[in-house]
Design a protein that fits this description.
Blueprint lengths: L3 E4 H19 L2 E6 L3 E4 L1 H17 L6 E9 L2 E8 L6 H4 L21 H11 L3 E7 L3 E9 L14
Parallel strand pairs: 2-4
Antiparallel strand pairs: 1-3, 4-5, 5-7, 6-7
Length: 162
C-alpha cells in the first residue's frame, strides 16, 4: 500500500462521476452525502473498494431505485456507507457476502464472479479497517467501510525481537 493523507469524500466523488452514466442508463438515482472524511490510505485501493461497492449497488438495484453513498468522520475513523433499495439478502446470505467466490441466490442472472467483496474486505483490513453489511430481503443492503483516520504507520506493525 502507498499510504498518504486522503479525503475519502474526494475519492468517492471521483468514483461516482466515473459510474454516473451507468446510473443514468438504468434510471437509478445516485444520492451523494459526502462530508470530509480524512484517512491515511492508498488512494487507488480505496477507490477500488468504493468502485466495487457502488457498482454492486447499481447491479442489484432495479430501475427506479436509489443508491445512497455517504462519507463522514466518525469515532476516529473515516466512514463510507453505500446503501441501496435493491432486493436485499437473507441473513444467512449476508453472513457469507465476503466469502471468496460465493454468490447468493439473489445474484442469479447478475454478472459477477463472487470475488469483488472478498477483495474489498481484504483491502479494508490491510488498511486497518473493515467492511460490514446490513441487509434484509425486500429492504436493500448497506455496506459500511471504516478506515483509520490516524497516522501513516502500518496498522499491523511487527514487534521487534525481545
Amino acid at each position: 500500500l502507498e499510504r498518504r493523507r486522503i479525503d475519502l469524500a474526494d475519492v468517492v466523488r471521483d468514483v461516482a462521476a466515473e459510474l454516473g452514466a451507468g446510473f443514468r442508463a438504468k434510471d437509478v438515482d445516485l444520492d451523494l452525502e459526502l462530508q470530509p472524511a480524512g484517512a491515511v490510505a492508498d488512494e487507488d485501493r480505496v477507490a477500488q473498494i468504493a468502485r466495487n461497492l457502488v457498482s454492486n449497488a447499481l447491479k442489484f438495484t432495479p430501475s427506479g431505485g436509489r443508491v445512497r453513498v455517504a462519507t463522514r468522520d466518525q469515532d476516529g475513523s473515516a466512514l463510507l456507507e453505500v446503501s441501496d433499495t435493491g432486493g436485499g439478502m437473507r441473513p444467512e446470505d449476508a453472513a457469507r457476502a465476503f466469502d471468496r467466490f460465493w454468490r447468493g441466490p439473489e445474484a442469479a442472472g447478475v454478472p459477477g464472479s463472487g470475488i469483488g467483496l472478498t477483495i474489498a474486505r481484504e483491502l479494508a483490513v490491510a488498511h486497518g479497517g473493515d467492511i460490514t453489511v446490513r441487509s434484509a430481503p425486500g429492504r436493500g443492503s448497506t455496506f459500511r467501510v471504516t478506515l483509520p483516520a490516524g497516522a501513516a504507520e502500518d496498522p499491523h506493525p511487527t514487534r521487534p525481537p525481545a
